[in-house]
Amino acid sequence: MAPHNIQDEGPADLEDKAAAAEVRPPTPPPMSARPPRMLIIGAGSRGRVYGRCTLQSSNGVVVSVCEPDAYKREDYVRTFIWSDAKHPAPKGSSFADWRDFVAWELRRREREAAGDPDVPEGVDAAFVCVRDEMHHDVVVALAPLHLHVMCEKPLATTLADCVDMYRAMAPLQPTKVFSVGHVLRYSPHNMLLRKLLLEDRAIGDILSVVHTEPVGFWHFAHSYVRGNWRKESTTAPSLLTKSCHDIDIILWLLCSPQSPSSSEPPHLPSEVASSGSLQFYRKSRKPKAAGAATNCLSCAAEPDCMYSSKRVYESARHQGLETGNIRWPMSVVLPDIESFGGDIEQARPELLRRLAEDYDSTTPQAEIDARNWFGRCVFESDNDVCDEQVVTIRWDEDPLPSAQETYADAVGNRGAKQATFHMVAQTKRQCVRFTHVYGTTGEIYADSRTIAIEDFRTGTQRSYHPKLESLGHGGGDHGITRQFVLAVDRVKNHGWDAPRAQREFIGCGLEEIIRSHAMVFAAEEARTGKKVVDWKAWWDEKVGRISK
Fold first, then answer.
1. Phi-psi region of 148 (alpha: psi -120 to 50; beta: other; left: phi over 0)
2. Dihedral angle at the C-alpha atoms of 433, 328, 236, 127, nearest 10 degrees?
3. Which of 93, 183, 351, 450 has the most CB atoms in a 10 Å sphere around its CB?
4. How far apart are CA 100 and CA 93, in angstroms?
5. Would you state the pLDDT for residue 403?
6. 465/455 Cα distance (integer angstroms)
7. Cβ-contact 242, 493 below 8 angstroms
8. In sequence order, which ranges of 170-316 are alpha helices (DSSP H)?
9. Strand, helix or coil at 437?
10. What is the pLDDT of residues 73-126, one digit of tens each?
11. Other C-beta atoms within 10 Å of 540: how many?
């Protein structure tokens, strides 16, 4: 018995009340007689997003969850899988460890093969939503089970692990679909933007793209200074953990063929460069008034500090306790916040206790690395990831013979061009990206809500306002979930082969997924080595023929 009326779980755009009034959730597709059965591995923020989107906008059902935290696991079952308090959830509805699921599923299949009439039904597909550094082990372990898989981004935290995952999943391509959480491809806004650029050629050939991701000052502090993704040594560079789907969008617009079914080869970049560093969230920026304090709750400068953990998590200034918010970021800081039944005063002491937690020179490094420290001074944290970074990707002319027949000039849509990406932490906007695209006959400005076109040929302007399906990545969360579940449904119930479902619903293949991740690693090599990386030579050396 699946529950209904699931609230938005996502972190994106929570402060945009005007946009919230314009949200028009998508209509779910018709249910098949045997709906795709989904397993969620990891009941954190992203696991909850995909559970909610599965119920709200797909024709699948969530039937099982793997989550080590008992409260999160039990709450997930109640919220997304089984709301009947009078009867226990079916066997196989939850597991404390994903390895327990794998072992259980192997035993279930043995019973099924032996003709056991009481064997429970299995799952068709898995959403992998564990911490980034765990993606590789989970996906590789799932491969022998031959499930359809959607792995949250990034695919993995090292290039070697990405390639290893490719080799594990590639043999399954004839029968199973695979997706990665590059949600920006699936928002109505970005789908229309790509159509205008590549199909309608609204500004001719693309010459330059300038794309910015404004992370938001307190959002960055939450996730990349105090939170899970603060250290390269325990996770990965912020370009990978935060912005890999921005790099993917750039390649989707400038590199990938217009149609996933096209036999046209991708227009591969020629070189990549990058610069960036940890500029602000460092001890040298600490206000003198803070003295030796390392925790906000014992700091004399706390009342006036914009990064005060009390201001961010307790007050009504952002999305703190006093707003009544029980979703992100509060559900990360206080995972059992719902157990307080909406009673702010009852939850406050526990929140302040969590925020008072701190470490010092006697704390084992493994303990420091293993958890978040949301009350820690942002200028005394152990973070080291970039809070500002620029990536520049350049393409040379690479015309195809068909361009001579199809286009007005000799290079067609494969002329010289470049893209600049800017990730910046210190912004009011939170992840509301904006993009300028300059073409041979016009220019486009897109800001996640509106697409404005300036046509040089006619001197006219026109604007588009794509529907906003949700505040989670402009509808991308709903879009990627719906497309993945539909692909699984077509294979399971409608006789489609997996490659067709991969093309028509996922829209990209494994090699394209690897390419966009590889571009991030190449950019990082360029940044740390203070050099320009030759893309072809780098790919041949680092990746080569990934299918071998």
1. beta
2. -100
3. 183
4. 12
5. 63
6. 17
7. no
8. 188-194, 217-220, 238-241, 244-254, 309
9. strand
10. 999 999 999 988 888 999 999 999 999 999 999 999 999 999 999 999 999 999
11. 11
Give the SS3 label for residue 93. Answer: coil
Q: Which pair of structure tokens corresponds to residue 219?
A: 């959002």
Query: Which residue blocks in 170-208 are alpha helix, DSSP H?
Result: 188-194
C-alpha to C-alpha distance for 221 and 231, rounded to whole angstroms: 13
Task: Write the single-letter amino acid at 412.
Answer: G
pLDDT tens for 219-228 read 999 999 999 9
Q: What are the distances in angstroms from CA 200 to CA 194, 195, 265, 271, 456?
A: 9, 6, 20, 28, 15
Residue 2 pLDDT exceeds 60 = no
Q: Are strands 417-424 and 434-439 parallel, antiparallel or unpaired?
A: unpaired
pLDDT tens column, 15-63: 444 455 466 767 888 999 999 999 999 999 999 999 999 999 999 999 9
Q: Is 467 a residue whose pLDDT tops 90?
A: no
Helices (H), 114-211: 135-142, 159-169, 188-194
Rounded CA-CA distance 194/209 in Å is 13
Q: Is 395 left (phi over 0), alpha (psi -120 to 50) or beta?
A: beta
pLDDT, mean over the chain:
93
Q: d(Cα 102, Cα 97) in Å, to the nearest integer? A: 9
302: which DSSP letter? G
> In the predicted model, is pLDDT for residue 471 greater than 90?
no
Tokens of 114: 């032996």
Q: What is the largest CA-CA distance in the chain?
A: 72
Beta strand pairing status for 37-41 and 451-455? unpaired
* Residue with the two structure tokens 């707003």: 323
- For the stretch 166-219, pLDDT in tens is 999 999 999 999 999 999 999 999 999 999 999 999 999 999 999 999 999 999
**What is the Cα–Cα distance from 468 to 449, expressed in whole angstroms?**
8
Residue 27: the pLDDT is 80
Distance CA 45, CA 130 (A): 10
Q: What percent of the chain has pLDDT over 90?
A: 84
Looking only at the bridges linking them, the beta strands covering 148-151 and 125-128 are parallel
**DSSP H helical ranges for 324-470:** 330-333, 344-356, 365-369, 403-406
Residue indicated by tokens 């933007």? 193
Q: Which two tokens stand for residue 227?
A: 């939170």
